[in-house]
Structure to design on (297 residues):
């Protein structure tokens, strides 16, 4: 797979992730923990079936082969799957996603400390610019102290995400970690079920949560694992910031959650930083190819 293809996967993944806020606002009866249960259960089933029928491997054998890295990654996925929905139930989509957007900063620090990953100057600059945009967005989100609890829960997501990305990068050459997404769904569903009883979701709720489990969790998380084989952890986290920009937009258009002006302007800064980072990488690659062509010629 080329770098461009990996970047493409990491554009599709946050596009799918960003649908969560708008869809959950249309849930009729299911409480947050029940939403976690159904969403995680369908994600588990989707990844297990994908392993069985697409990758032609037993889900049980694949999970065992992933070993301790797979178990740790699965635990981090479970934290993200659970904390995200609970945070959405306590505060707005914009607040949740803005809090999650510190993931690139945490990932850069973890990758630098634990993997000694070389972080290009363009990525540091893009991270700094994105941080300015995020701070701008964050400034409009702290007006209501009642949202602080939800934002603290949301903080668990970028912490788990940074640790997960580091594990994915460190282990991708040795073990296949797509099964970790399946384990994350299973762990999250098992944790949520006892707390969600008695179940009250309507058939419409279950359908919406099934769509989230498949297209907002299972598929994009698998795409992230595949992209992690070709992109550095900080780059993965930076591209994942697209969710921060798109999530409030969909919630605005589809659920009437009007984002603050600072959220929209800050989101534009984040998008510009991401585009600049990838454009700089593309130019570097093209210059390298031209140099090789001249030498060989």
């Amino acid at each position: 797979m080329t770098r461009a293809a990996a970047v493409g996967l990491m554009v599709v993944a946050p596009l799918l992730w960003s649908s969560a806020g708008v869809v959950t606002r249309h849930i009729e009866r299911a409480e947050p923990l029940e939403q976690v249960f159904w969403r995680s259960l369908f994600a588990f089933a989707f990844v297990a079936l994908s392993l069985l029928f697409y990758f032609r491997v037993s889900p049980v054998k694949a999970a065992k082969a992933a070993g301790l890295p797979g178990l740790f990654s699965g635990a981090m996925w479970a934290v993200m799957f659970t904390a995200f929905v609970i945070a959405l139930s306590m505060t707005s989509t914009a607040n949740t996603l803005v809090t999650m957007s510190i993931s690139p900063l945490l990932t850069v620090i973890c990758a630098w400390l634990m993997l000694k990953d070389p972080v290009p100057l363009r990525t540091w600059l893009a991270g700094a610019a994105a941080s300015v945009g995020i701070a701008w967005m964050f400034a409009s989100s702290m007006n209501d102290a009642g949202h602080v609890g939800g934002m603290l829960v949301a903080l668990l997501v970028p912490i788990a995400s940074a640790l997960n990305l580091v594990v994915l990068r460190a282990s991708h050459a040795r073990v296949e970690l797509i099964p970790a997404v399946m384990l994350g769904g299973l762990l999250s569903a098992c944790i949520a079920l006892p707390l969600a009883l008695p179940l009250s979701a309507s058939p419409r709720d279950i359908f919406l949560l099934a769509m989230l489990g498949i297209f907002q969790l299972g598929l994009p998380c698998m795409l992230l694992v595949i992209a992690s084989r070709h992109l550095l952890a900080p780059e993965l986290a930076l591209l994942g910031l697209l969710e921060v920009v798109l999530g409030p937009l969909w919630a605005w258009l589809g659920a009437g959650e009007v984002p603050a002006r600072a959220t929209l302007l800050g989101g534009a800064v984040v998008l510009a930083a991401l585009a600049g980072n990838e454009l700089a990488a593309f130019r570097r690659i093209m210059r390298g190819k031209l140099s090789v062509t001249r030498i060989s010629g």
